[in-house]
Design brief:
The structure holds 2 protein chains of 2 kinds.
Chain A lengths: L2 E3 L2 H12 L4 E2 H12 L5 H13 L3 E5 L12 E5 L1 H16 L7 E3 L1
Antiparallel strand pairs in A: 1-5, 2-4, 3-4
Helix pairs in contact in A: 1-2, 1-4
Chain B lengths: L1 E3 L4 E5 L12 E3 L1 H5 L5 E5 L2 E5 L12 E2 L19 H10 L2 H22 L1 H23 L1 H18 L2
Antiparallel strand pairs in B: 1-2, 2-5, 3-4, 3-6, 4-5
Helix pairs in contact in B: 2-4, 3-4
The chains are: A alpha+beta, B alpha+beta.
């Protein structure tokens, strides 16, 4: 297994996805993140983190169907993969050693 | 004359009303609105039940018979954020379509919630703040050197003052 950096936002998103294994989308992730961390994350930052997590194969996603209520826009749903759960477990144990989120390393 | 029916509604009989009503008609009047009662549903000729508090004085001449006024149809996109088209175009120009779609969806959901919770003005202010942030982030991402500088700066600030 290769060691890969897991940022604090990525870690927080994975924790959110563990709690909501199905049908999580950008807005619900943002809402839960803000509730859990009391920080205001921009939509762009969340999307970037989700992209990184997907590139690391820690999460996966699918596009929903476009609906008139959203002006014909699609919604993207995310869920956590087994590798993501493992990364959370390992990162959590490292957090106990190093409480600084910026120093946290995950294993993917 | 009005008397309490004991079930939270009150029954009113229009003794001197110069109107006739048919079974299950609906009457409306400005005087009902002033009393906190928007409509009165007639249950029989000349009698009606209504929900409200206190006494109700009805000006019979102001009563309008017939169907209650219809609310204008709510468009399917009601409450949808009116994201400024210029901002959307700029975002579309500097971001990937997939990113734009996800970001707009997040804004859309949040905007609707904030309109209900904080009002439209506050929701619009929040939306503009989000647009500004996202534009700034996208511009930074276009320039790797600037992104690296901002990243280092944030790390130094985080190191000095805490996360």
């Amino acid at each position: 297994m290769a060691l890969r950096a897991l940022g604090s936002l990525e870690f927080a998103i994975l924790r959110v996805l563990i709690d909501q294994p199905r049908d999580a989308y950008g807005a619900t992730i943002q809402e839960r993140l803000e509730a859990a961390t009391s920080r205001d994350y921009s939509a762009g930052a969340i999307y970037t983190a989700l992209e990184r997590l997907q590139a690391k194969h820690l999460i996966d996603s699918r596009w929903g169907d476009p609906t008139p209520e959203r002006g014909g826009r699609r919604r993207r749903y995310y869920w956590i993969e087994d590798a993501g759960r493992e990364a959370v477990r390992r990162t959590q144990s490292l957090y106990e050693v190093s409480p600084s989120p910026g120093l946290a390393m995950g294993v993917a | 004359m009005a008397d309490d029916k004991g079930d939270g509604t009150r029954k009113i009989v229009f003794m001197d009303a110069c109107f006739s009503a048919t079974h299950d008609s609906v009457v409306t009047s400005d005087s009902f609105l002033a009393s906190g009662v928007s409509t009165i549903h007639l249950t029989a000729h000349g009698t009606a039940s209504f929900s409200g508090v206190g006494d109700l004085t009805v000006d019979a001449s102001a009563i309008v018979m017939g169907n209650p006024p219809q609310e204008p149809p709510v468009p399917a996109n009601a409450g949808e954020p009116d994201i400024p088209i210029d901002a959307e175009r700029i975002l579309a120009w500097i971001t990937k379509p997939e990113r734009l779609e996800v970001v707009l969806d997040i804004w859309d959901v949040n905007y609707r919630k904030r309109v209900l919770r904080d009002g439209e003005t506050a929701a619009r202010a929040w939306l503009w703040w989000q647009i500004t942030r996202t534009l700034a982030e996208s511009i930074i991402q276009l320039s790797p050197r600037l992104a690296a500088f901002i990243y280092l700066l944030r790390r130094i600030i985080s190191f000095l003052f805490g996360p």
